[in-house]
Amino acid sequence: MSNLVLPTRAIQVVNKSIHLFHHFGFHTVGIDRIVKECGIPKATFYNYFHSKERFIEICLIIQKERLKEKVVSIAEYTNHTSARDKLKALYLLHTDLDGLYYLLFKAIFEIKLSYAKAYQVAIKYRTWLINEIYNQLIKLKTDATFQDAKLFLYMIEGAIIQLLSSDGAVDRETVLDCFLNAK
To answer: Most buried of 71, 80, 162, 175, CB within 10 angstroms?
Structure first.
């Protein structure tokens, strides 16, 4: 995000749009709705962002950077916390349907074919996250593998899918406890 410098008004548009994309999806929220909800002229939107694809990419970059800050905070700045507790915190952070990861997760399913560059932002985050998970798993069990880290990410994403398809009565921690107890 260091290369990405936006005026305050553009950041406000991004923040409002992240909310819209989160709740209504990338394909149902068009430029007309964004400019109407944000109270800006369409020309201003295109002056800031140039295209919907670039705009979605910027939204995902900002969301990814916000999420990375939280992950780094959990992984590196929570001294006196066990690797098990850090993994649990990472799991809960990523399985929160109102949280930062949900938009990136949603992007994986909704924009792969239509907005390939923006899609890559979500994919690169997943790769980075697998490495962060691995760094914690290796502290928990010295013979942990990258495959274990991928499995942990798949558990996160499976929990999200289950939460989306249920009536909200899902215990997110049951599968996590089984995984961690097996380690």
So the answer is: 71
Dihedral sign (CA 49, 55, 58, 63): positive
Q: Mind listing the pLDDT tens digit for each residue in 29-48?
A: 999 999 999 999 999 999 99
**CATH code at 169?**
1.10.357.10
Total structural domains within the chain: 1
Q: 117: Cβ–Cβ under 8 A, 6 or more apart, which residues?
A: 53, 54, 57
- Write the DSSP string, 27-68: TTS-HHHHHHHHT--HHHHHHHHSSHHHHHHHHHHHHHHHHH
What is the reported pLDDT for 1? 42
Q: Tens digit of pLDDT for each residue in 140-162?
A: 989 999 999 999 999 999 989 98
CA dist., res. 50 & res. 39, Å (int):
18
Q: How far apart are CA 27 and CA 59, in angstroms?
A: 14
